[in-house]
Structure formats: C-alpha cells, structure tokens
Amino acid sequence: MIEIKHRHSGEVLASWAGDSLANADLRAMDLAGADLSGQDLCCAQLQNVDLEGADLRGANLGRANLMNAYLARADLTRADLTSARLGHDHRAKAANLAGADLTGANLGRADLRKVDLRNCNLQGADLSHADLRDADLQGSNMHGCRAVFALFIRANMQEVQLEQADLRNSHLNSADLHQANLRHSNLGSSQAEGFTVLNLANLKRADLSGANLANASAEDADFSKAKLVDVDLSHAVISGAILDRCDVSGANFDGVELATVSMDFANFSQAQNANIPSYKENLR
Fold this sequence. Notes:
Elements (H helix, E strand, L loop, with lengths): L1 E4 L6 E5 L268
Antiparallel strand pairs: 1-2
C-alpha cells in the first residue's frame, strides 16, 4: 500500500494498493501539493488529475498520460517525462504546467501540443524530438536546453530565454519569438544535409547575437529590429525575410541570397560576405 501525502502537512491525500505507482490509475484525483518525489509513475493514468504545486522531483513519468492534468507550479526538477502524453488537439484538454519547474527534466519525445508552459523553468531540460506544436511557452526560461529535432511550429515563444539552447534541426515554422533571447543558440544542423526551419517565424526585436543559423531555412521570417551581431548565416535561405532596421555587425552572409530580402535601414556596414544587390536602398 502506497500512501500519497501532502508535501507540507503530511495529510494523506490518496492511497494505492501496490508496491509501485507504475501503471496506477489516478485519474481525476485531487493531489494538489502531493509529495511524489522519486516515485515511479511510469505509464500511469493521470488524466484530469490536480497536481498543482506537487513535488515530483526526480519522478519517473515516462509514457504517463497527463492529458488535461493541472500541474501549475509543480516541481518537476530532473523528472523523466520521456514520451509522456500531455498534449491534445484541443487546448482545453491539454495539460497546464504554467510556472512549473522543469529544470533538467527529460521531455524527449513528449507530446506537448497546445500545452500551457508559460513562465516555466526549463533550464537544461531535454526536449529532443518533442512535439510542441501550438504550445504556449511565453516568458519561460529555456537557457541551455536541448531541443534537437523538436517541433515548435506555431508555438508562442515570446520573450523566452533560449540563450545557448541547442535547437539543431528543430522546426520553428510560424513560431512567435518576439523579443526572445537566442544569444549563442545553435540553430544549425546535427547532420551534413540537415537544417533548422524558421519559415514565417516572428523574430522581431529578438537577440540572436552569436547564434548559429548556418544552412537554416528562414524564408519570409520577420527579423525586423532584431540583433544579429556575429550571427553565422552562411548558406542560410532567407528569401522574403524582413531584416529592416537590424544590426548585422559581424554577421556572416556567405552564400546568402539577398535579392528578395527587405533590408530597409539595416546596418550592414560591418556585415561579412554580404553580396548586396546594387538596387538595395536605405542601408546604413
């Protein structure tokens, strides 16, 4: 018999007959504030469960079903959520992790579609191959996270901290990265013929200083007023992109076609290897 107690008061919130919570059916239970640190919840049924403020540090939630679970402000530090199901086609049925601490958590291959991840701490988390289509990550701290081959299509990533993040081969099509911090992030590729996709992404006022965008596809992306200092854009495809009023000092444009790029009032005076068409005007 396992007793699930409140992390602070010690009150018994629920009990489960068995030696482990793996495969346990805890659907719709009220486990707010529960102490589940280090517990094995692999493949557990946790749909509609209330885990607000729960302690899940180091817990194993691999392949668990957490659709429509409420995990706001939960502590999931170093938790294993590999292949966990938190997302849904309908936002109202996706999990809520707003304000949760996911520092160092493993979310590899997790289903996070339309999940509320606003203001989360995802420092050092692993999101490789995770599906974050339409997820809301606004204001989250993803410093140093690993998200290779992750899907961020249409995700809300406004003001997200992505400094030194590994985003190689990820898909950020139509993602909103307005004022995001992508300093020294890696948006290159882990494969010889691979590339990261940023087509139609909103990167207005984003800081990409020192980032690697070599071979990236950023067609029709909006970089207006972004900081692209020392960015490696070599052989990137940025047809139709907007670079208006950008600072591209030290940026490497080797092999980049600029014919269809909007560059009004951008500072190209110290850009490297930029082959600027003669008809481009209003450059600084």
